[in-house]
């Protein structure tokens, strides 16, 4: 069964550093998403992306965050200057027009 | 999107049916009911969704009341691997935007 692949599985960074989280969505999907889950809390929507532009973003997704589909297969989330409160599991997801989202296994980001 | 209410936890014996309830009394006519689950901090997994008719797939059945104010997810023969957090989500027009609540922790025991 096709799956969404995320790398790395764990990322440790210093506060203020930039991080890029990478995702390879399912190949025939056209809709892409990032969600995050702070330890012990709910899964939260960050951003949706379609046709090379952001469709919707949450209030969490401020100017420090950006997304990109650089080469037609990867989908990335960049955090420009990480804060302690950015520590979370970040999930990438993709879907076709059916809106059934397929999630990756996540990247655990730890900001020290 | 309409708010949902689920019990915080439920138990089920292996091999028995697990019936997970969800209240969504403020659901509007064009909103769908989606169910996802999350096994041990993995990414959420799609289970099933419906608008007003009952639905069944290889994983589960979804029963939606006639007034659409509540629904029940049925896992017909629960296994230990079905132990997870189950999320009932009412989804409106925002494409792909899912609003997760706390869900129901389902524990399947031998």
Keywords:
heterodimer, A: 112 residues, mainly beta, seven-stranded mixed β-sheet, four-stranded antiparallel β-sheet, B: 110 residues, 0% helix
What does this structure look like?
The complex is a heterodimer of chains A (112) and B (110). Chain A is mostly beta strands. Chain A contains no helices and 11 strands. In chain A, the strands form 2 sheets. In chain A, strands 2, 4, 5, 6, 9, 10 and 11 form a 7-stranded mixed β-sheet that branches. Chain A has a 4-stranded antiparallel β-sheet with strand order 1-3-8-7, with no helix packed on it. The mean pLDDT of chain A is 95. With 110 residues, chain B is mostly beta strands. Chain B has no helices and 9 strands. In chain B, the strands form 2 sheets. Chain B has a 5-stranded mixed β-sheet with strand order 1-9-8-3-4, with no helix packed on it. Chain B has a 4-stranded antiparallel β-sheet with strand order 2-7-6-5, with no helix packed on it. In chain B, strand 5 and strand 6 form a beta hairpin. The interface between A and B is medium-sized, with 25 and 20 residues.
Secondary-structure blueprint of this entry?
The complex is a heterodimer of chains A (112) and B (110).
Chain A: E1 5-7, E2 10-13, E3 19-24, E4 31-37, E5 43-50, E6 53-57, E7 65-68, E8 75-79, E9 88-95, E10 102-103, E11 107-111
Parallel strand pairs in A: 2-11
Antiparallel strand pairs in A: 1-3, 3-8, 4-5, 4-9, 5-6, 7-8, 9-10, 9-11
Chain B: E1 9-13, E2 18-23, E3 32-38, E4 45-50, E5 55-56, E6 61-64, E7 70-75, E8 84-91, E9 104-109
Parallel strand pairs in B: 1-9
Antiparallel strand pairs in B: 2-7, 3-4, 3-8, 5-6, 6-7, 8-9
């Amino acid at each position: 069964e096709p799956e969404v692949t995320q790398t790395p599985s764990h990322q440790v960074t210093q506060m203020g550093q930039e991080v890029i989280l990478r995702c390879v969505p399912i190949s025939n999907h056209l809709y892409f998403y990032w969600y995050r889950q702070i330890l012990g809390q709910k899964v939260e929507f960050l951003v949706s992306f379609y046709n090379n532009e952001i469709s919707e973003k949450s209030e969490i997704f401020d100017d420090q965050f950006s997304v990109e589909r650089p080469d037609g297969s990867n989908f990335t989330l960049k955090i420009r200057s990480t804060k302690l409160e950015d520590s979370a599991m970040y999930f990438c997801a993709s879907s076709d027009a059916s809106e059934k989202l397929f999630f990756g296994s996540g990247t655990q980001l730890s900001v020290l | 999107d309409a708010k949902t209410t689920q019990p915080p936890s439920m138990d089920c014996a292996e091999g028995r049916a697990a019936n997970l309830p969800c209240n969504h009394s403020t659901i509007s006519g064009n909103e769908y009911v989606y169910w996802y689950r999350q096994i041990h901090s993995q990414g959420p997994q799609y289970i099933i969704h419906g608008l007003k008719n009952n639905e069944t797939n290889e994983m589960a059945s979804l029963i939606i009341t006639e007034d659409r104010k509540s629904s029940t997810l049925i896992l017909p023969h629960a296994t230990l691997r079905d132990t997870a957090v189950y999320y009932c989500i009412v989804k409106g027009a925002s494409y792909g935007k899912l609003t997760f609540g706390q869900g129901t922790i389902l524990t399947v025991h031998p």
